[in-house]
# Entry
Amino acid sequence: MKDLEKTLKELEKKIEKVTNSNELNDIRVEYLGKKGSISLLSSKIADLPIEEKKTFGAALNDTKNKATELIDAKKKELEEKALNEKLAREDIDISLPSLKVPTGAPNILENIIEEVEEVFLSMGYDVVDGPEIEEDKYNFELLNIPKGHPARDAQDTFYIEDEKILLRSQTSPVQARTMLKAGGNTPIRMICPGKTYRRDADDATHSHQFMQIEGLLVDKDISLSDLKGTFDVIAKKLFGEEVETRFRPSYYQFTEPSVETDISCFVCKGKGCSLCKNTGWITVSGAGMVHPNVLQNCGYDPKVWSGFAFGFGAERLAMLKYGINDIRTFYQTDLRESSTFDRKDV
# Structure
């Protein structure tokens, strides 16, 4: 017992003289380490009579606890002293404005795609995905684009293997896969947003990689008026309720009849400006009734089933909506460009 008291008093005196954390740590090891003074006293328990072991053991634990408290208290004292000295040395003006931490902005194309998806989901459409590395069969043949068609020219398409495997040049293959999977006896409402690839020289309006949002509806008794009504809904949701729409005759291999879809200029309200090239109208997509050959190739009887298909360029929608003049903006890492689009903008 006397040894315990003596050891604790020695510890107290040494702690009073400590000036830094290294010295304090040395004292902790000296007294509380495996070979420390207090730890070694536990070896004397074996030599004590049975009736004294319990009393000495309790006193030993009490001494360890007191020693730990003394060391922890000194540690806290040293830390507070060091902090106060640091604060005294440093001149901090708490009235200065804080640094502005830059924050990220939503991806512009993702927002456009999500906005389009929400509109079509509300009309009962499914969002479907498909492979970007595609077979010629799905990218061309099933879509009524035979061998020798200009769209197959190697200058337009990224072929990977013997003109049989390629990077898809459109998201239309997803439509073909969806129709084949449906088995030719089920109505279809779907859109398929995704990356597409073509051998275009990159400039302000062209890119070798771009995002398409294509859609397909197949059912019985579908007409061009159903397509017009669908296009009206999406145009007004994206560009405002006052926007008008129109169709112009066009030609696509996989639709018949085919149309170009226009909206009235939302900047000049149809009066004519630089955006609409003084026509009052802006072309936003291509569309048409699904060609009977495509329906038949994908397992649907064109005498029973009909449908329409359409395609938007996500970049073009974003460029029109947000006044972006260069398509390369979407694929660069210039924070000066993306910082202008915060969450309230998109």
